[in-house]
Specification:
single chain, 2 strands, 56% helix, mainly alpha, globular, 6 helices, two-stranded antiparallel ribbon
Amino acid sequence: MDVYWDLRPCYETQELYKRHNLKTFDYWKMELEYLTCSTWAKDEEFCNLPNISYLLNKYQDSPKIRLDKEDRRNLGYEFITDLGMNPYTFALMHLM
């Protein structure tokens, strides 16, 4: 999550959504989908990110990392918790 917040700072990203006349729920939904449905190539830059060893070990047999359901759910919970919400009552968690 730290890498995600470094790359897409919450307030700056939310301001971008507002400039496009999108609402808070659009931000939550689109960023949650972006975060949990992305596929990452295991290139040198990715492999050198901090705290990435879990993903590198779990998905070591694949040239790309595509999160499984368990990891998508856990990452989604972390995202929602970081925003100050309870993931178990957040409506979009059923999408994961």
